[in-house]
């Protein structure tokens, strides 16, 4: 039997993408070895416990600096023999201490078509700009906020009458398909980070893969 890549999933909230990763794990090349939250009452922790996945809580408010918090996270993650880190609604800006340690081994999913709308409130910003389409981006994490090389995007139409809530739901449907897929690419070795670039099946991704083209 092929050894699976051990991943840690980092969450801050309800963990809907975590659940998608859990649901696909048995059919994938990854196994979730740890779920870590910076918020003690994150509902996603219950999803992990129900699935029998080890959990850890590290309350960022108990640390004097971001660097101290990130160093403590590294120690916990490494102690679980984790090979890759998957950010799934983890609402913390990471310092270079953390991003450099896991460079090429860490993914994030962002609810916009990067480089549009890095940061927060992406659905609201797309509506205010009267965009015709919106979506998600999955990218390697670097020290630049939401700035690492983008691997895959999924687009959704913005229709008349859409609200922040309806747009978020459209995007989340695509997230739950796309994130386990790309995580599996990383675990299988098809996806790698080389020369600060994303490579898929030995091809440099000069533009993101589109989910609809797969």
TrEMBL record:
> Which residues are N(1)-(5-phospho-beta-D-ribosyl)glycinamide-binding?
15-17
EC number assigned by the record? 2.1.2.2
Site Raises pKa of active site His: which residues?
A: 146
Q: Which UniProt keyword terms apply here? A: Purine biosynthesis, Transferase
Q: Which GO terms describe its molecular function?
A: phosphoribosylglycinamide formyltransferase activity
**Entry's Gene Ontology cellular component terms:** cytosol
Gene3D superfamilies from the entry? Formyl transferase, N-terminal domain
Q: Where are the transmembrane segments?
A: none
Task: Describe the reaction catalysed, as an equation.
Answer: N(1)-(5-phospho-beta-D-ribosyl)glycinamide + (6R)-10-formyltetrahydrofolate = N(2)-formyl-N(1)-(5-phospho-beta-D-ribosyl)glycinamide + (6S)-5,6,7,8-tetrahydrofolate + H(+)
The residues that hold (6R)-10-formyltetrahydrofolate are 66, 91-94, 108
- Which is a GO BP term held by this UniProt record? 'de novo' IMP biosynthetic process
Q: State a single Pfam family of this protein.
A: Formyl_trans_N
The residues responsible for catalysis, as annotated, are 110
Q: In which pathway does it act?
A: Purine metabolism; IMP biosynthesis via de novo pathway; N(2)-formyl-N(1)-(5-phospho-D-ribosyl)glycinamide from N(1)-(5-phospho-D-ribosyl)glycinamide (10-formyl THF route): step 1/1
Q: What residue stretches are annotated with the Formyl transferase N-terminal domain?
A: 5-182
Q: Which domain of life is it from?
A: Bacteria
Family statement drawn from the similarity comment of this UniProt entry: Belongs to the GART family.
Task: List the HAMAP family.
Answer: PurN
The record describes the protein's role as:
Catalyzes the transfer of a formyl group from 10-formyltetrahydrofolate to 5-phospho-ribosyl-glycinamide (GAR), producing 5-phospho-ribosyl-N-formylglycinamide (FGAR) and tetrahydrofolate.
Q: What is this protein called?
A: Phosphoribosylglycinamide formyltransferase
Species in which this protein is naturally found = Hydrogenovibrio crunogenus (strain DSM 25203 / XCL-2) (Thiomicrospira crunogena)
Gene that specifies this protein = purN
